[in-house]
Amino acid sequence: MAFPATRLRRLRKTGVLRDMVRETELTPSHLVLPMFVQLGEGDRTPIEAMPGVERLSISQAVEEAGQAHGLGIPAVLLFGLPADKDEQASGAYDEEGVVQLAVRALKEAHPELVVITDVCLCGYTSHGHCGVVLDDGTVDNDLTLELLARTAISHARAGADAVAPSDMMDGRVGALRAQLDAEDFKDLPIVAYSAKFASAFYGPFREAADSAPAFGDRRTYQMDPANAEEAVREALLDVSEGADVVMVKPALPYLDVIRRVKEATRVPVAAYNVSGEYAMVKAAAAAGYLDERGVVLEVLTAIRRAGADIVITYHAKQVAEWLR
Ligand code: PBG
Questions:
Q1: Atom of ligand 1 nearest to the CA of 166
Q2: Contacts for 199 with CB less than 8 Å, ≥ 6 apart
């Protein structure tokens, strides 16, 4: 009779032992809740492909963020839906713009809540691209940097705790860092969307933010899903330009990238469990094909196990409730 030399099942026999040797923790303290904020005091507007997620007025956002914070979620990530869009994305850096007003209201109501703002132009441009579009239809990198820096400064002035550039222009982290330092925001962290892939999983978000590009696509600035080595280069560059946290996005299809970025940079890594990942689980759960709670906890634990310190997820409130 041959006996196995080691018996790994011994430590699986009771919940107590399983808990003691668990390698990865998933708690609300790692989660960030994304929120879509709009002007006016109308009703919450649902987002069709994201059941449970709604566009909120500023006062509704204050309420929602308060609930999330009460559940142990330390941070929110804000996306603004401006009243008007134009070629210069002026709503993005308007001192009285939707994000700027929302940040002030959130910080006043919940001073302990960490308010992170998404810094990009796509929700504010009439054409839906993440930067300034030239006559030939291309996105101009360096003209865009100026507008992104203005946007970040306006968020900082409103009281944001961190800014998160998601545009994927080259040099944006350095441009933001220089401008923030010059304006006396030396201690304001930059959470850089470093490895942001040109992904089909952003579909529901673009419905929510009405930010689908009117022509072309984002492949001239967002990354090719086939590239992991390049993701490491992007992350290292962002760190060298002053990023405090680097992000990989989407999360679940890119667990290998999360791991490689973590090992290469040794800085905190955030992973964005994006709108399409959320929609996929919600749809399967609604059809009765998957158990939502089990799947979500497994997915988020896997994202943490891959190396993510922070997980941005539309499921944040539900997860915090499940983990209570
Ligand atoms: C803006 C931005 C996008 C997302 C976050 N910031 C959309 C895009 O690049 O088209 C997607 C988030 C999600 O799908 O949940 N550039």
A1: 16
A2: 222, 225, 249, 250, 253, 274, 276
Domain that holds residue 61: 22-323
Buried/exposed 120-131: b ≥16 CB within 10 Å, e otherwise: bbbbbbebbbbb
Any catalytic annotation for residue 317? no
The alpha carbon of 11 is separated from its chain's Cα centroid by a whole number of angstroms, namely 36
**What is the Cα–Cα distance from 80 to 154, expressed in whole angstroms?**
13
Has residue 43 been placed in a domain?
Answer: yes
Q: 41-63: per-residue pLDDT in tens?
A: 889 999 999 999 999 999 999 99
Tell whether 8 is covered by a domain: no
In ligand 1, the atom with minimum distance to the C-alpha of 168 is 16
> 112 lies in a domain?
yes
Q: Which residues line ligand 1 (CB under 6 A)?
A: 118, 120, 122, 130, 166, 202, 205-206, 211, 218, 274-275
What does the mean pLDDT of the chain come to? 96
CATH of the domain at 277: 3.20.20.70
**What pTM did the predictor assign?**
0.96
Does the pLDDT of residue 259 top 80, yes or no? Answer: yes
Catalytic residue among 85, 196, 282, 317: 196
Cα(175) to ligand 1 centroid in Å equals: 21
Does any domain span residue 246?
yes
Cα(210) to centroid(ligand 1), Å: 11
- Structural domain count of the chain: 1
Instruction: Output the residue whose Cα is nearest ligand 1's atom 5.
Output: 166
Decide if 196 is catalytic.
yes
Rounded Cα gap, residues 30 and 35, in angstroms: 17
Structure tokens at 266: 């040794």
